[in-house]
Amino acid sequence: MKKNHTLSPKIRVMLLVGVVLSCMSGCQGRRVVTELSYPNDSIYSATHVMRIYSAEPRRALQVIDSIELLGQEPDFLCDYLRATVYSRSPLQQYDSAIAICNTLLKHDSLTATDEASLARRQNALSLLCSSYRMQRDYEMWLVRNMELADICRQEGEEVEALRTDAETGFILAEIGRREEGLALLDKTIEALEGQGSVNRLDASIIAIKRKINVLQEFGQPEQIVPLAHRIRAKVAHFRQHTAEYADDSYRLPASMGRYESYCDFTESQIVGFLANAFAVMHEEDSCRYWLAQYEKKPYSRSDGGRRLIVPTWLSVGRYANVLAVCEKEERRMGADTVNDNYADVLRFRALAAEGREQLQEACGYWRRYALLRNVLNDNLQTSTAHTYAVRFHLQEQQRVLEQQNSKLHLAIVVIVAVVLLSLLLIAFAIRQVQQRREMDNKNRILAQQISELVKLKTSQPQVAAQATEPAAEHATEPAAEQPEQPQEEKTFTKTSVAELKLMTEAELFQFICHDIRDNRLYTDLSCDRQKLAERYGLSFAQIGAAFSRGSDYDSVADFIRECRLDYACRLLTDTNMLVTEVARSAGFSRTTTFNHDFKTCYGLTPSEYRKQKALLAE
Q1: Which residues, other chains included, contact 493 with Cβ-Cβ below 8 Å and sequence gap of 6+?
Q2: Angstrom distance (rounded) from CA 507 to CA 462
Q3: CA–CA separation, 553 and 549 (whole Å)
Q4: How far apart are the first and last CA of the chain?
Q5: Which residue of 86, 208, 339, 474 has the smallest Cβ count within 10 Å?
Q6: How far, in Å, CA of 236 to CA of 377, rounded?
């Protein structure tokens, strides 16, 4: 991609030969190197250009031509380097930089959607915005600035996007949308607040500077002073705690030791802002103090530093300094006098003439200034800058709407989640109630079956006599207070030990079973096989054999436990005794053992059984 501003191939070859000959002639007394140098071992590299362009811009342009001629760097990179030299060096050839960057934006290496192409496009747009800012071309500056912010956000560089938003806020204020611009600046400053990295610190300082620029333009010096001191505090903290900041900014020197130049430059500008602010507020002592501090800074002797301090010079009567700056600006602009910079020159000349009491000359400058300002205002009103400003405003409204929609969506999701959870809880509760009812029905049926089984056992012939007795009479009497049992004792006395020994195991079981049930021997806590052996005069083994081989029970203990549980069922149904009292009355030494055995045998706890029996009775 050849440009008119680059050298022809013939001239490049001649230049290359001249460079080589110069190198050879400068090597007297040393061995002559005939090989061409390359980026890693010579001055022909982009790194070298970026190192020298500020001090030697024309030498940097020659090196760029040599790099392109040797083919050591792509053509688009060489063009970008040229644009950088034109825009950011003392050459100040902004038109050339803008022309190159606008052409670069159409290059294939900057129009693709890959990460590298987006990064190149971002760099070109940043350079364009810088050039438009220096020319005060607010229309194109706003256009490219908005495009730059979009790309920064696409790449996830939020700090760079906020830095660009600060510039947008300044532009909006300059084109007449002052409140909107200040609101955006305040929002950006707040978003960038807080320590984190060098890049965030620099972006925060830039945003505050832009607000100071707007306040200067609209004559609000009282608000400038706290903002200036705010920046000084940030710089002081950075100086004292540099190691705590992440070194992530390509805009600042990579070496930690060279951050001092950045701090000096920033403090110089802030001191200049303070001097200007106190000058406008007519606080002469403060103004002269900060002006003296400012003039000690190296920045005060630069072109930008002189332009910055012009309002202060006007306030303290240094009109010669003001006129010197105006003359230099006029020489730089040449015939291009329809712009904001020339309007500032006319205003400064008018103020200087008034200070010198040259009223007729001052009127002439004021008249020319008013005419030029009217032309510029008309151009601004008829330009597309307002269109882009409206577009930016709509984008901001769209972002606010999207945030509100996002919050609404989140609220809807939360409400739906709560409703669903509530429905699930209700469904769970309903299911629990249904299961509870089903369980109650099953327990009711089980309680009825248990009751019928107990009645069946008590209705057998051997316990018929007891079945005719009132259940309450048995329940209310303590186990120790058993009634007289003449019939049972008769039965026992009629059967001698010899007769018992002659019985078969099944007959002996029936005899013992009847005796235990009829006389409620199971209510005695100590009733066991040994106790029965002593009662009947039989051996321990004979009693055990009667139950293990003469019945369906495995042991005497199983039979006694069944009798106790059956009796407990009757007490639970027919009396109001506590469960602990029922357990002891039925022959259980511990309530926990009673509850466990009852649950194991019948599938219900004693309390559940009593409850279901009460429901059945209703």
Answers
A1: none
A2: 13
A3: 8
A4: 104
A5: 339
A6: 41
Check residues 104 and 484 and name the one with the higher pLDDT: 104
Check residue 32 and report its DSSP letter: P
| Identity of residue 244 | E
Residue 569 has phi, psi (to 5 degrees) of -60, -40
CB burial of 307-330 (b: ≥16 within 10 Å; e: otherwise) equals: bbbbbbbbbbebbebbbebbeebe
Work out the burial of residue 190: count CB atoms within 10 Å of its CB; fewer than 13 is exposed, 13-18 middle, 19 or more buried.
Answer: exposed
Answer whether residue 230 shows pLDDT above 60. Answer: yes
Contacts of 248 (CB under 8 A, 6+ apart): 197, 198, 199
H-run or E-run covering 443: helix 385-458
The sign of the CA dihedral 299, 301, 307, 313 is positive
> CA 424 to CA 426: how far, in whole Å?
5
Contacts of 23 (CB under 8 A, 6+ apart): 33
In sequence order, what are the beta bridge partners of 197? Answer: 246
Which residues have a Cβ under 8 Å from the Cβ of 359 and sit 6 or more positions away?
Answer: 353
Helix H or strand E segment including 116 = helix 115-135
Give the mean model confidence (pLDDT) for residues 7-29. Answer: 38
Average confidence (pLDDT) over 296-308: 85
What's the length of the chain? 618
Q: How far apart are CA 261 and CA 210, in angstroms?
A: 21
Whose tokens are 């309390």? That residue is: 607
Give strand pairing partners of 246.
197
What does the block give as tokens for 266? 């920033």
CB within 8 Å of 56: residues ≥ 6 apart: none
| Cα separation, 132 vs 145, whole angstroms | 10
Assess contact for 149 and 169: CB atoms under 8 A. no
**pLDDT > 60? residue 8:** no
Q: Is the pTM of this model over 0.85?
A: no
Cβ atoms 299, 267 nearer than 8 A: no
Q: Which two tokens stand for residue 166?
A: 């600060």
Is residue 577 within 8 A of residue 585, CB to CB? The reply is: yes
